[in-house]
Design goal:
460 residues; alpha+beta; Aminopeptidase; Alpha-Beta Plaits; 2 domains; 4-stranded antiparallel beta sheet; 13 helices
């Protein structure tokens, strides 16, 4: 080999070796952070209704959520954060800074019935790990609040994101008389926990918040199916439209009543046909969108359109009775309000026709409606830059599920959100699981993002 070329080749080989060493160190550090996050998730998983198995039921304002909050408050104090709760029970752990503008990061601890261990809890534990990292390396100019929202899931009171809605003064007197399956109102649940929230009471002043960021496990399989994609940067969050559908006829004896529509007015058959009708109309809406290409709304908010019958309950029925009343809930979502409204209207019209064919009447009650929300473009760009600077493979993507970040963005607080993969795409499911390296990658991204926006200066 010519002598002149040898130094250049040696330098190139040395550069490749150093790059490999730096990458290995980052992966090792990321893995250690992922392990610590997983330990905290496992510890919080103990607070559930189930005595064994993988399932987690931790409903808002129940004793299991209370115990989880107490545990996390202890972790916050151990990390040297100043801890407080507000009038709705939301929990805050602050890493102090000198500025009056606060940076907020957080998620929730409650679950759906028989859900998994990672939903919401990852965001809280990743944020705690990130704050520990920042505290060890410097002092933030902006205070950083780790916030744990109460009752994010709609599993208990049929309305989602109650904690962040309350903090922003968006809960009404009607919301406080919502009841759970046992007839307990939200107001009563608050009183049982020693909380004194009043309708419209604002607990956070958006003017004092610099931004909000929420880490979360993806509630789908897009990242899990993508090659090497470890982070999903959320650009827009879909808004749900929810309805209660009540199918009414008259009950009859299941043995003595002949088969056929002339004799039987089966509310359960009508509800079942409504479920299939909902699926088919939603599939058709997606198929038409793909064939026709971007419409005016979809060109800006491209994403899936979904419709689901999420619950079905026989109100009048028994082992030997043809059901006379069945109640279901309908959940319609899209990234465009126009697309969502069109699908909801088509589903209700189609379901009503299907019910009438069975001789069954249909009552429709709207439960809730939330607009889709775009995340702060500036924060999306910043998250992309941090990913590129740290070699984190990522993609931009929408969220079909609702999150507290949408409430804060609507209130004028620039908000951001990112996902780590859920293996197998499991969500609201006992089999939720995220690989340690992905848990750690999220912590690295969150730490670097917070380090920049909170303007952390090195420890003297």
């Amino acid at each position: 080999m010519p002598a002149k070329k040898r130094p250049l080749l040696e330098r190139m080989a040395r550069a490749r070796k150093l790059k490999r060493i730096r990458t290995e160190r980052k992966v090792t550090k990321s893995r250690h952070e992922g392990i610590r996050v997983l330990r905290n998730i496992s510890a919080i998983r103990r607070f559930r209704q189930e005595a064994k198995g993988k399932a987690v039921t931790r409903l808002g304002f129940g004793k299991e959520e209370n115990r989880a909050f107490e545990h996390v408050a202890g972790l916050m104090r151990k990390s040297g954060l100043s801890v407080r709760t507000d009038a709705f029970g939301n929990l805050y752990g602050r890493l102090e800074g000198k500025s009056s503008k606060v940076v907020m990061v957080g998620s929730h601890l409650d679950s759906v019935r028989r859900g998994g261990a990672f939903d919401g809890v990852y965001g809280v534990t990743a944020a705690l790990e990130a704050l520990n990292n920042i505290k060890a390396t410097g002092n933030p100019a902006h205070p950083i609040d780790l916030v744990v929202w109460r009752c994010e899931e709609s599993a208990r009171f049929n309305k989602a994101m109650l904690g962040s809605n309350a903090a922003l003064g968006k809960l009404t007197a009607e919301d406080l008389i919502r009841t759970d399956a046992n007839g307990v109102t939200l107001r009563k649940a608050l009183e049982q926990n020693g909380l004194t929230y009043k309708p419209g009471q604002q607990l956070i002043n958006p003017q004092n918040v610099l931004l909000y960021i929420e880490p979360h496990v993806e509630q789908g399989d897009i990242l899990a199916r993508a090659k090497r994609k470890r982070i999903g940067i959320v650009t827009r969050i879909a808004g749900p439209e929810r309805y209660e559908l009540t199918f009414k006829s008259h009950s009859a004896h299941s043995g003595a009543t002949p088969m056929g529509r002339r004799h039987r007015k089966d509310a359960n058959v009508a509800a079942s046909k409504a479920t299939v009708k909902t699926r088919n109309l939603a599939l058709r809406a997606n198929h038409i969108s793909r064939i026709l290409g971007p419409t005016v709304s979809q060109a800006v908010h491209k994403g899936p359109i979904v419709g689901t019958v999420t619950q079905m309950r026989t109100v009048q029925g028994s082992l030997n009775t043809i059901p006379g009343m069945v109640r279901t809930t309908l959940d319609v979502r899209a990234l465009s309000t126009h697309q969502r409204g069109k699908l909801a209207k088509r589903i209700i019209t189609g379901v009503r026709k299907a019910a009438l064919k069975e001789g069954v009447s249909l009552d429709v009650k709207e439960l809730s409606r939330s607009p889709p929300v775009s995340m702060s473009a500036k924060n999306v760009t910043l998250l992309e830059r941090v990913c590129k600077e740290n070699g984190i493979v990522h993609r931009k993507m929408p969220s079909g599920a609702g999150h507290d970040a949408s409430n804060l963005q609507k209130a004028g607080i620039p908000s951001a959100m990112f996902f780590v993969p859920s293996e197998g795409g499991f969500a609201h499911n006992p089999h939720e699981r995220t690989h340690i390296k992905d848990l750690g990658a999220g912590v690295v991204l969150l730490t670097k993002f917070l380090h920049g926006v909170a303007k952390v200066s090195p420890v003297n």
